[in-house]
Write a structure and sequence with these properties.
It is a single chain. The strands form six sheets. This protein has a five-stranded parallel beta sheet with strand order 2-9-3-4-5. Strands 16-17-18-19 form a four-stranded antiparallel beta sheet, sandwiched between helices. About 1% of the residues have low confidence. It has 13 helices and 19 strands. 25% of the residues lie in helices and 22% in strands. Helix 11 runs antiparallel to helix 12. It has 489 residues and is an alpha/beta fold.
Length: 489
């Protein structure tokens, strides 16, 4: 998978320089002599010292896993004690067991409920015969010569203080001695200090950045990943890289304004999404069939993937915009002006893939521009339960540009029908080029709602919208010409 992704990136023009040591050999600031901007995401590979006697005879969790991945598939011992309660600790324990260790015990400060490891990971480890000792931490390692013979553990009465900070308390009257011939320390990770620039501001050992652009206090240097967030997930590291890419783009002044994206048509859903259904389950492989080279569970087959996808009804369609202004400005082809760009109203009231707004962080609206219209017939109607200022259950904005009695251009926008103002494009096509007298408004109303799929208890909205569209078109046609003089926000 990594090879496939990097090959794709190389085709895009990304160059990879492998085997280059960053830190003692080359500093990020030195790279600025050759490059205009530098993004550093060195991760959190360093294991903090816990300051106990004999600690130097233990191996780190990441060090052990890395050595196995690099071709040293041997168990560190027959009786292995893993200290830690996170996912790295579980991985190290499972890997040692699968490499042939006769007995593996995990010991952690946290209770079973407090363990930071994923519950499914812990359950899989227990299935494979790995022991678990919770609420105990190490006080010292027992060493004979250069070999570990065991560890003394002490009971942990609490891990966190009242503010949620890490502040373990111990009852030293309750101790246990565990016999072992290898100890793996997996007690957390922190950024490697050798990779950090001396002038870069840190917070708790992590690189301090301005969150949206991921910019450090050193101009031209950006940072992300675990070095900034602390140990997190792959997805969070990818998200930081994406934010940094936008930040670098803005810093270099090369980023063109993002293209405005019009709102989409109504989604179409399979009828199966309306019925209760259970999720597709993936059965874990039996413990004896698990290896270091494959996942502990299988995957979904093609049929299961399709069935799971068809269960989705896109629940976001319930969270509609109640704004009166949104459909009106969209019908008038207005443009929203910010301190950075001009955005068509249809795109402004939409949402970006990763956000509920199309605006960038810190981007403010400074005005609204409505273009000139010489002969525009307009109407706005809404159905609401209470008074005129109440949020609409349904609303329609109509703007008809006329050439005599012929509709040259039509804009019909439904409000409170979807998460964003929705252009009724089929209805617009029915009207354009016609003299919409007689049945024209009714035909457009029917076209506006063709194929709509309401939620079970919202079916009445179909009739409401059709009535509103028909009435709004009729109302617009009988209105006098309404010249709109735009040009100023």
């Amino acid at each position: 998978m990594v090879d496939a992704v990097t090959a794709f990136l190389e085709k895009l023009g990304v160059a990879f320089a492998l085997g280059v040591e960053i830190g003692e050999g080359t500093r990020a600031s030195e790279l600025l002599e050759e490059y205009d901007a530098v993004y550093t995401a060195g991760g959190a590979w360093a294991t903090p010292s816990i300051g106990i006697e004999g600690e130097e005879h233990a191996v780190t969790g990441l060090g052990f896993l890395s050595s196995v991945r690099q071709g040293e598939p041997t168990a560190p011992g027959d009786r292995v004690l893993v200290i830690g309660g996170g996912n790295v600790a579980v991985d190290a324990a499972v890997t040692a067991k699968r490499l042939g260790a006769g007995h593996v015990l995990m010991a952690c400060l946290e209770s079973r409920e407090e363990m930071p490891a994923l519950d499914s990971e812990v359950r899989h480890a227990l299935d494979e015969g790995i022991g678990l000792l919770t609420s105990f931490g190490p006080s010292r390692l027992l060493v004979s010569g250069d070999e570990v013979t065991g560890a003394e553990l002490v009971a942990c009465t609490s891990v966190f203080d009242e503010g949620g900070g890490f502040a373990p308390s111990f009852d030293r009257t309750r101790q246990r001695t565990v016999e072992c011939d290898a100890v793996i320390l997996a007690v957390g990770q922190r950024p490697d200090g050798s990779l950090l620039e001396p002038g870069i501001e840190t917070l708790g050992g992590r690189v301090a950045v301005d969150p949206p652009p991921q910019a450090t206090r050193m101009e031209g240097i950006f940072a992300g990943g675990d070095a900034v967030s602390g140990p997190a997930t792959v997805v969070e590291a990818i998200a930081a890289g994406r934010r940094a890419a936008r930040g670098v783009d803005a810093f270099l002044g090369t980023g063109a304004p993002r293209a405005a994206r019009p709102s989409r048509l109504l989604n179409r859903f399979g009828e199966g999404a309306l019925e209760p259904s259970g999720r597709e389950e993936v059965e874990p492989r039996p413990p004896e069939a698990r290896t270091r080279h494959e996942g502990d569970t299988g995957g979904l087959d093609a049929g299961q993937v399709l069935a799971e996808a068809n269960r989705c009804f896109n629940c976001g369609c319930v969270a509609v915009s109640p704004s009166d202004l949104a459909p009106v400005l969209t019908a008038l082809e207005a443009r929203v002006i910010t301190g950075k760009r001009t955005i068509p109203a249809e795109a402004f009231f939409a949402a970006s893939p990763l956000s509920s707004t199309v605006l960038d962080p810190g981007e403010l609206v400074s005005g609204v521009f409505i273009p000139d219209h010489e002969d525009l017939r307009t109407s706005y109607m809404k159905f609401r339960i209470r008074n005129a200022i109440d949020f609409p259950v349904a609303s329609v904005a109509v703007a008809l540009a006329m050439d005599g009695n012929v509709v040259r251009k039509a804009r019909i926008v439904l409000g409170a029908a979807a998460p964003v103002p929705l252009r009724a494009r089929e209805a617009e096509r029915v009207l354009e080029g016609s003299e919409p007298g007689g049945t024209g408004a009714a035909e457009a109303a029917e076209a506006a709602l063709k194929g709509a799929l309401p939620l079970e208890r919202n079916a009445y909205k179909i009739n409401v919208f059709q009535a509103l569209v028909k009435r709004a078109i009729t109302e617009a046609l009988v209105q006098p010409a309404n010249p709109i003089q735009g040009g100023k926000p």
